[in-house]
Amino acid sequence: MAIKVQIPTPMREQTGGKAEVDVTGATVKAALADLVRQYPGVEPKLFADGKLRPYINVFLNDEDIRYLDEMDTAVTDGVIVALIPAVAGG
Q1: Which CB contacts under 8 angstroms, 24+ apart, belong to 55-60?
Q2: Boundaries of every domain in the chain
Q3: For this UniProt entry, which residues form the secretion signal (predicted)?
Q4: What is the pLDDT of residue 88?
Q5: Most CB atoms closer than 10 Å: which of 30, 42, 47, 89?
Q6: Which residues contact 41 (CB under 8 A, 6 or more apart)?
Q7: What span, in angstroms and rounded, lies between the C-alpha atoms of 56 and 27?
Q8: Phi and psi at residue 70, in whole multiples of 5°?
Q9: Which residues of the chain fall short of a pLDDT of 70?
Q10: HSE-up of 61 (CA within 13 Å, CB side)?
Q11: Tell me, what's the pLDDT at 1?
């Protein structure tokens, strides 16, 4: 199953500069686990104590997974998972 994960600019150093990475998995959780398996340096940017960091928003084909089944949201061939870090500042 080919799933594309869009990597935000601040995390691209951990993916060798790649803006998009192909992963596999049946759920968002499994897809992100495959991303971490391929690029272990991404893990501390995405997760803390095994949970997705609160400032990382995950979208599945433009839908926020918080309004779906969160990390248990099913993914299918050809979907795009976008990782969007929240931006703050003043």
Answers
A1: 55/85, 55/86, 55/88, 56/83, 56/84, 56/85, 56/86, 57/83, 57/84, 57/85, 57/86, 58/28, 58/32, 58/82, 58/83, 58/84, 59/84, 60/28
A2: 3-85
A3: none
A4: 73
A5: 42
A6: 13, 14
A7: 17
A8: 50, -135
A9: 1, 89-90
A10: 9
A11: 59
